[in-house]
Write a structure and sequence with these properties.
The protein is of the alpha+beta class and about 300 residues long. The strands form 3 sheets. It has a 4-stranded antiparallel sheet with strand order 3-5-8-7. The longest helix is centred in the first third of the chain and has 31 residues. The termini are far apart. The chain binds 2-acetamido-2-deoxy-beta-D-glucopyranose (4 copies). The site of one 2-acetamido-2-deoxy-beta-D-glucopyranose has 2 residues, from loops. One 2-acetamido-2-deoxy-beta-D-glucopyranose binds next to α4. It is a single-pass type II membrane protein. InterPro entries: Na/K_ATPase_sub_beta, Na/K_ATPase_sub_beta_sf. This is Sodium/potassium-transporting ATPase subunit beta.
């Protein structure tokens, strides 16, 4: 009975020879469905391309539209070693224990060779911002970058003292500010930003202050260039595409009288009137902390 009342069998549900249906649909029905989806996907693709195109049109060629993440420039230190915490720890009398620091500094400073800089960069007027604006639709491109000669770093340049003081227990470190497009770190009045290093004491409160004892352990430091300033002429930075040869300015710090065989936590920070004071609280912004230990058998 059941078989005769027009109920479809399992086989017929796939292909029904009586009605010419394939999985319940006729050929023309299937054709329409396929046609609909093809048209639908073509429309989607076209729509995607159109919105993408519109989005790209609103972006400037040479400048990222969003750089929220980089508004607080980080202070970077070289030589960079020790994970996850930065540290410099070596034995004065063992060359192989500090040779890696010297090599890292050599490599890092090599693009700052005076001849190299003279070849690719421009001699700027120091102590003031180097603006290179575009006049209307005429792009000032490519923009020039200022020379930074490693010789400015004096005893920390690796030129006069090839070991950067590591062999004498007077090591140098070098710091630089991360690039932030358009940043004027010296503020409107152009007070040059500068670096200072001091012992960092962990403990009691957030605003830890150093004690004389720790200051004695760290000893005197010397800054290159004098006062540890980043010259204003290296700002503003216009971006990698516009300033192809840009060299970030550097500040070197030489520790002149470290107490040996002692851990000293050092914090170097930048004072930059042009960078929002609120951001100074940022853990990683504007400062770098590292452990310094020079061992000696004497
Ligand atoms: C830079 O100078 C140092 C020493 O003067 C030299 O060893 C190095 O090869 C130079 N680097 C470049 C890129 O010229
Ligand atoms: C960048 O440096 C190269 C040489 O390394 C030089 O030919 C070029 O003119 C420089 N570009 C700018 C914009 O200063
Ligand atoms: C170096 O440090 C030692 C111990 O902290 C101190 O006695 C000495 O006066 C310092 N020397 C100089 C030149 O600052
Ligand atoms: C370093 O700072 C002192 C005091 O602020 C200033 O008198 C001196 O001119 C500065 N030196 C340089 C080279 O900027």
């Amino acid at each position: 009975m059941a078989k005769d009342d027009g109920k479809v069998t399992w086989k017929e549900s796939i292909w029904n020879p009586r009605t010419g249906e394939f999985i319940g649909r006729t050929a023309s029905s299937w054709g329409l469905i396929i046609l609909f989806y093809v048209a639908f996907y073509i429309f989607l693709a076209a729509f995607f391309c159109l919105t993408m195109y519109a989005l790209l049109m609103t972006l400037e060629d040479n400048r990222p539209k969003h750089q929220d993440r980089l508004v607080v420039p980080g202070l970077m230190m070289r030589p960079r070693s020790g994970n996850p915490f930065l540290e410099i720890d070596y034995m004065m009398e063992e060359t192989e224990s500090w040779d890696m620091y010297v090599q890292a500094l050599d490599e890092f400073l090599s693009p700052y060779n005076d001849s190299e800089q003279a070849k690719k960069n421009y001699e700027c007027v120091s102590d003031k911002y180097f603006f290179q604006s575009d006049s209307g639709s005429v792009k000032n491109y490519p923009k020039r970058s200022c020379q930074f000669h490693r010789s400015i770093l004096g005893e920390c340049s690796g030129l006069t003292d090839r070991t950067y003081g590591y062999g004498d227990g007077q090591p140098c470190i070098i710091v630089k500010l991360n690039r932030v497009i358009g940043m004027l770190p010296g503020g409107k009045d152009g007070e040059p930003p500068f670096v200072t290093c001091a012992p960092k004491i962990y403990g009691v409160s957030e605003d830890d202050t150093e004690t004389t004892e720790d200051t004695d352990k760290m000893g005197q430091v010397m800054y290159f260039p004098p006062n540890g300033t980043f010259n204003l002429m290296y700002y503003p930075y216009y971006g990698k595409k516009e300033q192809v040869n840009y060299s970030q300015p550097l500040v070197a710090i030489k520790f002149l009288n470290l107490t040996t065989n002692t851990d000293i936590n050092v914090e170097c920070k930048v004072t930059a009137p042009g960078i929002n004071a609120v951001n100074v609280k940022d853990k990683f912004g504007l400062k770098v902390v590292f452990r310094l230990r020079v061992n000696s058998r004497n």
